[in-house]
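anyone seen this seq b4? input:
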Amino acid sequence: MAGVKAAEVSAILKKQLSGFEAKASLDEIGTVLQVGDGIARVYGLSNAEYGELVEFEGGLEGIVLNLEEDNVGVVLLAPSREIKEGATVKRTQRIASIKVGEGIVGRVVDTLGNPIDGKGAISGDLYEMPLERKAPGVIFRQPVYEPLQTGVKAVDAMIPVGRGQRELVIGDRQTGKTTVCIDTIINQKEFYDAGEPVYCIYVAIGQKASTIAAIAKTLEDKGALAYTTIVAANASE
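predicted toks r here
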């Protein structure tokens, strides 16, 4: 011990203490009571908010959608095979949101905005937008004054659709509903080439991954994927 110098020991202690942060973090933790059909009942998150993201063991996330007196109902955003009764759940204190930007155009993403087309991360500036937000009032909306050309002559002639207008395409199975929508998206290419693009969002819920891949390939071959975003919630999820 004769070779130990007090100055050296003091310098080492000062260096280690300089990076010490006396901060404490408090997390509200809950416990899974039951899980099934993509819904988990969680006890202990008494301060959870509607629409808040919660995190399960293993990193799986869910959205709080049902607030009851002694538990909350959480919709799982991934397969529930890894979630067991008694698993811990942590609040994130963040309202469910996704990051969007110009880079999301031309991509295939999941319901959380994560790319699933194998083309890497979404580039460019991204802005976080909540999933649930109040729609602008009628007074503040731009009036519908321009038709949306679907490319189907019967529709454009007899029941024209206005840009910004809601339109329901209803029919039995295998009657061509998806075909009409895909043709409408492809028909917007002339506006894209003219520098006045009509950005399209195709949302596929409960469809097979192979079907979504085929639609993406069709749009890409026709040059329509350049102004289209595909949001996919596959049947396997």
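Residues 6-18 form the longest helix (13 residues). Residues 64 and 229 are 26 Å apart (CA to CA). kinda curious what u guys think
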